Amino acid sequence: MSEMQLVGIRVEQPQNQPVLLLRESEGERFLPIWIGQNEAAAIALEQQGIAPARPLTHDLIKDVIDALGRTLLEVRIVDLREGTFYAELVFDGDVSVSARPSDAVALAIRVGVPILSDEAVLEEAGLVIPDEREDEVEKFKEFLDSVSPEDFNPGESDGSEG
Length: 162
Hints:
With about 160 residues, the protein is α+β, with helices and mostly antiparallel strands. It has helices spanning about 35-45, 55-65, 100-110, 120-125, 135-145, and strands at about 1-10, 15-25, 30-35, 70-80, 85-90, 95-100, 115, 125-130. It has an eight-stranded mixed sheet. Strand 4 (about 70-80) and strand 5 form a beta hairpin. The radius of gyration is 15 Å and the shape is globular. It starts with a strand and ends in a 16-residue tail after the last helix. Residues about 155-160 have low confidence and may be disordered.
């Protein structure tokens, strides 16, 4: 397993499809995961430190975990099958729950736990951006700083992930 850092959300054009972008903490590979509009908005809100007027689903899940006295230890991206990524929420007491990567990441950043990726997933889907493209990564980071959750139009998600 490799620890990953959340770079942010990017919107692929012309399909207007959000992409969750993770990067190896101790490596050069990026892991792009296409996600739904609602999940993109939830991640972007949390990244920007914006608290919605009412808790979102991921905030509710965090509160339920706390109320039940459990501890989320980490989230893992564990598989990639036929273009679909799979993740797990890993809790204390050796309990794991299957989840979509977007939901797992949205929860991880709210709770403050590590995001890990299986090596086989990184080997299959990880991308290395050559040094000459580092300026594109910086432009992407600038984009993330300027994007707002409204840019994701959360009312039009088909819930797909892949």
